[in-house]
Amino acid sequence: MPSSKNAIRRTTGSRGISESIQGDPLNWRAWILAARPATLWATVAPVLVGSALATAAEVFRWDAFVVTMLAALLIQIGVNYANDVADGTRGADDERIGPTRAVAAGLITPRQMWMGVGWAFGLAGLAGLYLIKLGGPWILAIGVVSIVAALGYTNGPIPYGYYGLGELFVFIFFGLVATVGSRYVYDRTLESGAWVGGVSMGLLASAILLANNVRDIDTDRAAGKRTLAVIIGRRNAVLVFALCILGGVLTPPIGVVFDWLPPATLFTLLALPIALPLVRKLQMHVTGPPLIKVLKGTARLQLIVALLLSGGILIA
Q: At what angle do helices 234-257 and 289-315 cross, to 10 degrees?
């Protein structure tokens, strides 16, 4: 394993960040870094949409909202920790461009990171016990399947994140499951609007992962990590990214056409001026800070679409 100083210099280009994190006796900054806070909007967004639908149906409960949000964030943090340790031990993060990965940089040992994974999923499970009381056995099934799928993303004998299936996983679990599940927990109702919102959130969450994988395409290929971007090539991956971005913004208006969502959710179209420059930037730049900005911008876009969609639901 390369020294932590060299690894951090490659991934961030900043010795100051290296010294700051390494000088922290509790290493809490490294744990926050490994949680990948810029991507956590992918969890916040679908819970907001599901909760807005519950509010419109007059079944919203603050306890359900807070516990659902907490459980969802803990699961994503667990996923990010598991991904950090898997990629770090497999060498996929050794030469990457972008934020420092804690295990690859030597900031957190693999054993410590696995303990972090255990704590994140364990706390999510405790929160899930309360949600099971509200939503019944289906919530238990959703929680178990989500954690198993999370662990299998970059770990296990066949890590499907290494075989081009990462975006599908994100679409299902960070889109459909997160949105529909967030709505279901309030009164055990499955409504069409939640599925439409889930498709929108899933496409945008998949775009976040695509932006990350397009940025890392060369280092992933060298490490034997066959993401979707590696398999189909950069040009096609950018095209899929564009389709996900546009699909995420345009799905709610399609829901309006079929009377699955109220007309006010057409507000999501206001996000198009934010979405289109992201596609252009990913087309124009191959490496460097602009691609990191695309990833963060896509995460913000998902939050903006979620807020516009939720607002349209609430004022209907």
A: 10
Secondary structure (DSSP) of 48-62: HHHHHHHHHTT---H
Residue 111: C-alpha distances to residues 118, 228, 257 (Å):
11, 29, 51
Distance of CA 42 to the CA centre of its chain: 4
Range of the domain at 122: 4-18+27-315
Task: Give percent of the chain with pLDDT exceeding 90.
Answer: 54
Tell me the CA distances in angstroms from 281 to 61, 273, 289, 311, one per residue in order.
41, 13, 11, 29
Please state the domain count of the chain. Answer: 1
Q: Torsions phi, psi of 234, nearest 5?
A: -65, -45
Q: What is the largest CA-CA distance in the chain?
A: 57
Give residue-wise pLDDT tens across range 60-75.
999 999 999 999 999 9
**Burial degree of 158 (CB within 10 A; 0-12, 13-18, 19+):** exposed
**Which residues of the chain form beta strands (DSSP E)?**
none
Number of Cβ atoms within 10 Å of the Cβ of 272:
12
- In angstroms, rounded to a whole number, what is the distance separating the alpha carbons of residues 119 and 249? 35
Instruction: Provide the CB-side half-sphere exposure for 68 (13 A, CA).
Output: 31
Query: What is the reported pTM?
Result: 0.85
- Which domain CATH number covers 85? 1.10.600
Distance CA 303, CA 29 (A): 24
CA distance 107 to 146: 28
Please give the Cα distance from 301 to 225 (Å, whole number). 27
In the chain, helix, strand, coil percent, each to 5? 80, 0, 20
- Give tens-digit pLDDT for 110-140: 899 999 999 999 999 999 999 998 988 888 8
